[in-house]
Design goal:
272 residues, alpha+beta, Glutamine Phosphoribosylpyrophosphate, subunit 1, domain 1, 7-stranded antiparallel beta sheet, 6-stranded antiparallel beta sheet, 13 strands, 26% helix, globular
Length: 272
Amino acid sequence: MCRWAAYCGEPLFLEDIVSSPAHSLIAQSHSAVEARTATNGDGFGIAWYGERETPGLYRDVLPAWSDCNLKSIARQIRSPLFLAHVRAATSGGTRRDNCHPFVFGRWSFMHNGQIEHFERLRRPLETMLPDELYAARTGTTDSELIFLLALHFGLDEAPLLAVREAISFIERLSVHFGLGADVRFTAAFSDGARLFAVRYATSAAAPTLYASPMGKGGYCLVSEPLDHNRSNWMGIPEQSAVVIGPDGLEVSVFETETAPPVTPEKVLMAAM
């Protein structure tokens, strides 16, 4: 499984998350402790927002620990909102187009998880995309396809609802083909103004997600903590959505038509 980190708040140097902490994202690329495998060496990427509406993007197929350019860029770029990802491939080959984050217009998106039986579902899922979004699909991963489906279902108008609809459609399609619904989804996405995240699984455990205050009024979301002091990090419960914006961090219930219902009380108790 992949590892990722995202930040939203007052401008922060990328290195404060990507390379400087004791258990930075680069460290997690070769020594993750809460993933199926310790190594996430199938490429990396960073999307960051600056003075333009659309984000900057830097991705490569090299392992994050071996790219000296990544450390140099992280030391120089300061941003109020950025997404960073190190990849352990579960679908799609090791190529730049398959490295996260993915970008379309002002949106950026990255994901940790998978769609079970994706190769059986890939073709009918792709046929759902309108021409503009189908033409924007340059890679072969399930992650990029989920992103494009969310755009189709209205990511611009209602981000969390669009992601819910995309996952629900995948689950319904899987059941229709007699495969059983099984989606594991912990993702972060942004329009440049707010940072969104979802931790969700149809049945099995969802990939981990943590949050912590960072900088001046900012928050960091990570697959696993950047240091060894767990008291600094709040575990985000399964079947939850996170929104970080001017009003701070908000956690709410995230559920689809297929998954067992989760009460708001359960989410709040788990977040305490």
